[in-house]
Specification:
Blueprint: H1 8-11, H2 28-36, H3 39-42, H4 54-70, H5 74-83, H6 87-90, H7 92-95, H8 102-132, H9 137-142, H10 145-150, H11 154-173, H12 175-182, H13 187-200, H14 216-236, H15 238-242, H16 248-280, H17 289-296, H18 301-311, H19 313-330, H20 336-352, H21 359-383, H22 397-410, H23 415-420, H24 435-452
Helix pairs in contact: 2-16, 4-14, 4-16, 5-16, 8-11, 8-18, 8-19, 8-20, 8-21, 11-19, 11-20, 12-19, 13-16, 14-21, 16-17, 17-18, 19-20, 21-22, 21-24, 22-24
């Protein structure tokens, strides 16, 4: 396949030059930290306390933070730094020039629709908690607050639609302004997390897991599953972050600080808040972070709800931007604005129906979807001598086989699959298994075996996309 016959998304690829890159603390670290300081990440982590102690949950968080950095990000950051090219181009080595249309190209955009629905759901839910949770007589006579939060009321649908379309337009038209704000706004949720944890701290000594047989490994395993499920797509997007890095030191420090440290801090403060709130009020229903705020910080809870809702602005805008960017790049015949608003519409419907609020199975589905993609790309990187091999012609048999088998392993303990099999008691694996990590391992192994058997496509020249030359470490 000549360069003239390359698909448009490859023929138009141009590496990001070194003079347009910056230090890790100006791009990778704050961008990733903002992802982990989003309330959707840590709101459901307290569920691990149903299975084991606070110590077990925190152990799982430490392991998950390390796995996120070393397995799901670092190689992708290196690929972006060394090539200067985005994920959908780099992925053509693992999945083929034609196969790359779907994995990771279009698939990344489709998954962002799900993330957009989560951002919209949480923003609408938290806004309604501020203005409806006090059950004012006027609103209570028309709508019930609990119904609104589940997404089955007209009020919730209206709020979700208004919020969703506003930030879809911002993401399509003004993402550069949102990116600038997002470098500084994460300070606000960090401060609120600290305040909430301090307020709940007096109850820590009285907390006990409700599990009849608390298990360290069950709690730790569920924590790993939740964190990796949340992070898997963002880890693969490390290629896009890495193309703004100057050298390997930027890649490493950006990940260690923006991923590992940020996950530990945000997740740790949230889980401590939930544990402490249950210690203060043993009858507290649920183990969500937002559900614990009223007990941990009763005087500031409403203000926090509103600020956490505002904090969903940047993730919503970035998701809508990636929806339009990914889909319009892979299918340029449809305008970017059409893709953005169409994807946002689907996300808003999912949010309005309340489907986006069930985070555990959603995280599991994301982890199962991108775990094998990450595993296959890491295997390709290592088999190619720790470098990008360039595009390979056609549809990659090793890449697609790795995804299919890895995905099936990844969904083996998903609640959606369990319901299809007959409900509780029909699980293939318990929810405590970190199947998102299993899917990575399976994707890695399957790709390595089939590539070793010579089933990779032939290399294709990409003259316009030469890897960036190696640079000495830059201080700072």
């Amino acid at each position: 396949m000549s360069s003239a016959a390359l698909p448009s998304y490859l023929a138009s690829a141009r590496p990001n030059p070194l003079d347009k890159r910056g230090p890790w603390y100006m791009n990778t670290a704050p961008s990733y930290a903002g992802i982990f300081l989003w309330v959707a990440f840590y709101d459901s982590l307290g569920e691990t306390l149903r299975l084991g102690s606070l110590g077990a949950a925190l152990l799982g968080l430490v392991l998950a933070a390390l796995i996120s950095h070393f397995l799901f990000y670092y190689v992708f950051g290196l690929l972006g730094m060394r090539t200067g090219l985005p994920l959908y181009v780099v992925g053509s080595s693992t999945f083929g020039t034609r196969g790359g249309y779907l994995f990771p190209g279009i698939f990344m955009g489709l998954l962002q629709i799900g993330w957009y629905s989560v951002a919209t759901f949480f923003a609408a839910k938290l806004v309604l908690r501020v203005f409806v949770a006090d059950k004012s007589p006027l609103l209570k006579t028309i709508f019930d607050a609990a119904e609104a939060e589940r997404g089955f009321s007209i009020v919730f649908i209206i709020v979700a639609a208004v919020w969703g379309y506003i930030f879809a337009l911002v993401g399509a038209l003004g993402i550069r302004y949102v990116a600038r704000v997002s470098q500084f706004f994460p300070i606000v949720p960090l401060v609120m997390l600290i305040i909430a944890a301090l307020g709940a701290a007096p109850g820590l000594g009285r907390f006990a897991s409700p599990a009849t047989q608390p298990s360290t490994w069950a709690a730790a395993g569920l924590m790993i599953q939740l964190v990796i499920g949340f992070f898997a797509t963002a880890g693969a997007a490390g290629v896009d972050f890495g193309l703004n890095s100057r050298n390997e030191r930027d890649v490493s420090l950006g990940g260690l600080s923006g991923i590992a440290l940020a996950a530990l801090v945000a997740g740790g403060l949230a889980v401590v808040t939930v544990a402490g709130a249950h210690g203060l009020d043993p009858h507290l229903a649920g183990f969500s972070f937002t559900g614990s705020l009223g007990t941990a910080s009763p005087a500031l809870a409403k203000v926090m709800f509103l600020l956490f809702a505002i904090g969903s602005m940047a993730p919503a805008c970035f998701c809508s931007f990636i929806i339009g960017n990914s889909l319009s790049t892979m299918i340029p015949s449809v305008p970017r604005m059409t893709w953005t608003l169409g994807g946002a519409t689907i996300g808003i419907v999912l949010a309005a129906l309340g489907l986006a609020g069930n985070l555990a199975p959603f995280f599991g589905l994301i982890g199962a979807s991108f775990g094998p993609i990450c595993g296959a790309m890491v295997a390709d990187f290592l088999l190619s001598g720790r470098k990008w091999a360039g595009p390979r012609a056609g549809v990659s048999i090793p890449g697609y086989a790795a995804w299919i088998i890895g995905f099936l392993v990844g969904i083996s303990n998903n609640d959606m699959v369990t319901r299809l099999l007959g409900g509780p008691g029909h699980e293939i694996l318990s929810r405590a298994h970190p199947t998102a990590v299993y899917s990575f391992v399976v994707g890695f192994v399957v790709y390595a075996i089939l590539a070793g058997a010579g089933l990779q496509g032939r290399p294709v020249a990409l003259p316009a996309a030469q890897p960036a030359p190696a640079q000495p470490a830059v201080q700072g």
